[in-house]
Amino acid sequence: MNHDPVIPTKATAIVFTAPGEVSLTEHRLPPCGDADIVTETLYTCVSPGTELRMLAGHYGADGQFPYLPGYNSIGRVLAVGAKAKGYRAGDLVSAINPKGNEDIKSLYGAHASHQVLATDIDQRPVLLPDGAQALDYAVTEIASISYRGVTAARPQAGETALVIGQGMIGAFSAAWLVAAGCRVGVIDLEESRLEGARKLGASTAITAAQPDTLDRALLFTRYGADIVVEASGSTPGVKLTYQILRQKPKMPAGKYVREPIHYFSHDWPRLVWQANYLEEVALNPHGCLISEGVTTIASGDRGIEDRHRVIEELRRGSIRGADFIDKLVSPREAPAAYAGLQARTHFSVVFDWSKLNA
Which of 77, 81, 101, 248 is 20 to 30 A away from residue 19, measured at CA? Predict the structure, then answer.
């Protein structure tokens, strides 16, 4: 095995010790297998929607405390197993799902000072470009989730898109649509998030706190939006999606025309689900969908090709990772950081692991 002289056997990690409780603990690293690499963590980015709900005991976390959370990390390779082909000590990688051990449960487990990562799996660590500044790519894995859903909708320059919810996934969704040349409107309850969307290129930012939210959104379109992204994870957001999707042009009064359905099937509006939901939402398709058809996309997770493409978009500057980083803090500040996310005083948090021992 090729490695630096000193390879850590332990890691310091952020741990969800009980519902609503966060601490910093030390645990053993699993051994580095032939197809594994060992990395020192530079940055990890919190996924607020997923992690806050898991901190509350949802998404399979109930009964799993204590455990290591987080799925988004940037690290530097320290050691390379004999069968970990192509990786070299010193490489910068974006990684998810490090290997766990018997010390403590790991539910994704990225928020740790060091990681052992398998390279013989589909979601292997991906290399950052030559000369990359690690912090510029700290949002890679979260950005890849939104990128997958938005690109599946095949946005075209000049189309109109509305994004409901401006948490991190919604903010990235809007940014990808702006980069594709769409006219983009966003809807959210918080003015600070609306202002952030305006700065990143949204044509209009609509507060969801007013009774005329729907009317305001429809003023942004003619017959409705070509693309609607639901990223709020809320029942009101779900119901709003169907009201702002593009409808077929209405016929003149007194006329009733029913064209063959395939006339429009190649050009139906697209609805992209980019959130997770804690409650079931009941809808009557004929009551909420006035047009005859809609293409529905519920992208799951992200693939390695999405991760590669997002890294390239970040390298080119199509979007800038720094625009989505609100707080850069030491892992020792994790309890306060999660409290800030819960209170919505923070938009996003990135942990700088170089500050761990500062």
Answer: 101
Characterize 328-353 residue by residue with b for buried, 16 or more Cβ atoms within 10 angstroms of its Cβ, and e for exposed: ebbbbbbeebbebbeeeebbbbbbbb
Map out the domains of the chain as residue ranges: 2-138+325-355, 143-297
Distance CA 189, CA 238 (A): 15
Q: Same fold for the domain at 2-138+325-355 and the one at 143-297?
A: no
Which class is 2-138+325-355 in CATH?
alpha beta
pTM, rounded to two decimals:
0.91
Check: CATH 3.40.50.720 for 143-297?
yes
The pairs formed by 325-333 with CB atoms below 8 angstroms and a separation of 24 or more are: 325/45, 325/135, 325/138, 325/139, 325/350, 328/135, 328/352, 329/355, 330/355, 330/356, 330/358, 331/12, 331/14, 331/24, 331/111, 331/113, 331/355, 331/356, 332/24, 332/356
Instruction: Give pLDDT tens digits for 320-349.
Output: 999 999 999 999 999 999 999 999 999 999
